[in-house]
Amino acid sequence: MMISPEGFIQECIDMTYSELICVRDELIEEIRNFEKCKVNPSEIMINPSPEVTYQCNLDYLGSLCELISKKYHTEFVWCDDKKDENYLFKIRDFLESKGLRYESTLNNQIKDRNEGKKYAKWEHIRALIYAMLTNQTKWHRIEPHFAEIDVLFFDYDPVILKSTSGEYFADKLFKLKCGNISTTSQMNALSYNFDILQSIEKEYGSLDLFVLSSPAHEIVQKLSKKSSKYKLKMLGEALAREYLRNVGIDGAKPDVHLCRFLSGSRMGNGNHTPATTREVYDSVLELSKATDLSMITIDNYIWSYCADGYGEVCTSTPRCSICETRQLCNYKK
After folding, report:
1. How many angstroms separate the first and last alpha carbons of the chain?
2. pLDDT per residue as tens digits for the range 180-194
3. CB neighbours of 9 closer than 8 A, spacing ≥ 6?
4. What's the predicted TM-score (pTM) here?
């Protein structure tokens, strides 16, 4: 009597990846023998018939391949059978051994939102400006100046900000050494962007309700896609994701470090180098499920591991000799 596919898989559930491959090969051999009419004539009258056995073997093979895929991820990709063996924790240990800070205050924002916090309009404006300041610059240049930046932007009072020229903000930012290649254009776009935020607020009731009105990737598209009526000037997908993270929406920012680290030629499973925005998001999401870490935490581990002034390991010219993930990496010199 043949057992169900579920029963068959239950018998295989504790096998290793290599053992499952052997079972798969045996199934395939039986299937091919039937298809090539290599069935023993003496078996024609047995119950179950060869036809029923063939159908069951096909069902077993389909279910078995799903189990093999999961087992492969467990043993060779994410090591999620023992979460503390995941390469992310090796990166964390490396950063700790070097005395490098990797924890992100963004985790507090996620925690606050999960506990019911609602972000006010001024907090959204601050989140947007902070996101813009991360564009094409080294974050360790910006972080020490948060208090000065808050004062510079009048504690994010929208009325005062709207009536102040972009040149004023750009000049002050450069004096703080917090400017980037796009700062002047970004600051000149503030007035327009405030008008868009006001229209969003009018339609949704608040900016906070807007960012919660759809999945994060859809909000990103609304804020960054050229055809969207909510498109903010000087805000692409990466900066839109950074803005959302600044108001407690979990996610990863596909900046140069993550796109390089999670590319197909390094630690990613995709086909692109650098990785696409979608590949970064999918990779970080899968890592989050495997480790129970927030996407922001994973982002921060990888970013800190790669960035100038921090780990400086997986850079444009990687330091493979000291890399904690080199055995899993696809990088070829």
Report:
1. 56
2. 999 999 999 999 999
3. 60, 63, 64, 67
4. 0.63
